[in-house]
Amino acid sequence: MKLLCSVIALAAASANDPNDFMKRKSKLLHWHPSVGQVLKEQDNYVVTEDDVADWQACGDNAVCTNGRGWNFECACAEGYLDFDPSSYRKFGACVYDSCADTTCQDNASCSVSADGAASCACDDDYYYESVEQFDADGNSTGFADTCYFDACAEDPCADNTDCANDAGSAVCSCSAGFFDYAGDASNCVPDACGSSDDCSADATCTVELPDVNGTAQWSCDCDDGFYGDGVTCYVDSCSEDPCQADSTCANDMNDYSCTCNAGFYLGADVNGTDFCWTDVCDSANPCSADAACANQADGSQECSCNDGFKGDGYECTNIAGERAANILARAAEFEATAAADLVNDTRAAGRVQKALNAFNNDIFFVSEWTQGCYNNGDLQADAAEAADLESSEELLGWDSDDLCAFADDLQTAAKRFARSFACVSSFGYNAEKNMAFNTKRVHKQLKRQNKKLKNFGKKIDAALDC
Ligand SMILES: *[C@@H]1O[C@H](CO)[C@@H](O)[C@H](O)[C@H]1NC(C)=O
Ligand SMILES: *[C@@H]1O[C@H](CO)[C@@H](O)[C@H](O)[C@H]1NC(C)=O
Ligand SMILES: *[C@@H]1O[C@H](CO)[C@@H](O)[C@H](O)[C@H]1NC(C)=O
Ligand SMILES: *[C@@H]1O[C@H](CO)[C@@H](O)[C@H](O)[C@H]1NC(C)=O
Ligand SMILES: *[C@@H]1O[C@H](CO)[C@@H](O)[C@H](O)[C@H]1NC(C)=O
């Protein structure tokens, strides 16, 4: 480095001191005293080695060269740095460049301070970090001062993030108030969870992607032990398995209900506690096929004969069938009596027999079909008639000595029987008949048979001259 030194006016204050004299002269003039030189102006002072070092125009470690006229120039010697170019060379502004003896770490540069000390500093775009080092075994080998590239300077992070350098790599993290949606700071969305979310106190808020307009979104999920839409959460009572065995629990707000599983019904155990009993009526019905089975609260079953049947529920008799059997039995009785009475009147006996055959056939026919109705659960009985018939009492106390009266009773019983039962809609006595007859035809047939039964009385009357 070259500098033009300005000329300083000579001061006369200490004109008699050879030191001052030489200082002033060396400053003013391009004058280099040499060892042993005699200064006549200073009483023949002999210049010493120290003087030469002390009085040189430029400072230590500087090289002086002539300038124009009175001027001279000083430059730091090679290997020295000029720390104070404006100051006078004499006073030691040239400092040894100790960086020559210094090796800085990668991406760092060395600099020398005014006191000659070398120091290393990271280059632009690099920053200093002391990072713990590890050997192949994973043992720490101490800390290394390293100049790492300032990766954050390249703004590598997504929007709404903070960048932090870590050993030369940029580490991005969502800024305060933003939520790391993707988990890698690539999508930091407004954190809508917090004081303004509307989640239940028993729910967990989750930040969702903003909508198309960038409005923050969130969702609420009820915590374990709760259920609901997240805004309102109810106690999940069912999670504690509060129901009796063989039942299913259903929450109802903060309450719950238990419903017996399929194949079970709700009753109570001996202590009156809700209990799901096996639906025996369904799985192992002990009742008659013609009876209704009803499960009881204590787990037992009650059987009751269907309409048109009577019995204890385990055995049920078809009322129509029994009724027909009773009438036929009395008809047989009538037949025997008539045969005995008419033993000497073969013609009358023949007419009675014929009428009886038709009667029996008609009774049997009606009976057969009406039982079919019963079996189908589809028989309509005149309530009063059916109740009477059920008792069978009307069949008792007939006058079997008087054939005309006997025939009247039979006729009455047959009429009541015939009009007491009627199939109402479908007919299902058996598959074959079901296919062969439709309901309408059966009704028609029953009507015809009933009419024929009415004729029985007339025929008997005619035969017996009643
Ligand atoms: C930083 O140091 C490394 C390792 O010596 C070197 O490869 C890289 O070029 C340096 N970077 C710059 C910008 O000089
Ligand atoms: C380094 O680690 C290995 C295995 O973890 C261990 O056995 C060894 O003693 C450690 N060496 C030192 C010097 O701590
Ligand atoms: C977005 O903004 C437009 C215009 O204000 C509005 O019509 C639309 O409903 C907004 N969409 C949503 C999802 O909020
Ligand atoms: C009924 O209560 C008694 C007395 O608390 C108890 O010992 C018994 O186990 C209970 N029975 C049932 C079926 O819960
Ligand atoms: C039938 O005739 C015989 C002989 O004539 C007679 O003895 C009998 O009593 C008659 N029977 C009846 C029931 O009239």
From TrEMBL:
Chain segments annotated as transmembrane: none
Record's signal peptide: 1-15
InterPro entries (UniProt xref): EGF, EGF-like_Ca-bd_dom, EGF-type_Asp/Asn_hydroxyl_site, Growth_fac_rcpt_cys_sf
Key words of the record: Disulfide bond, EGF-like domain, Repeat, Signal
Record domain EGF-like: where: 95-132, 234-267, 277-317
PANTHER family (UniProt xref): CYTOCHROME C OXIDASE POLYPEPTIDE VIC-2, NEUROGENIC LOCUS NOTCH HOMOLOG PROTEIN 1-RELATED
Identification of the protein by name: Oidioi.mRNA.OKI2018_I69.XSR.g14725.t1.cds
The organism of origin for this protein: Oikopleura dioica
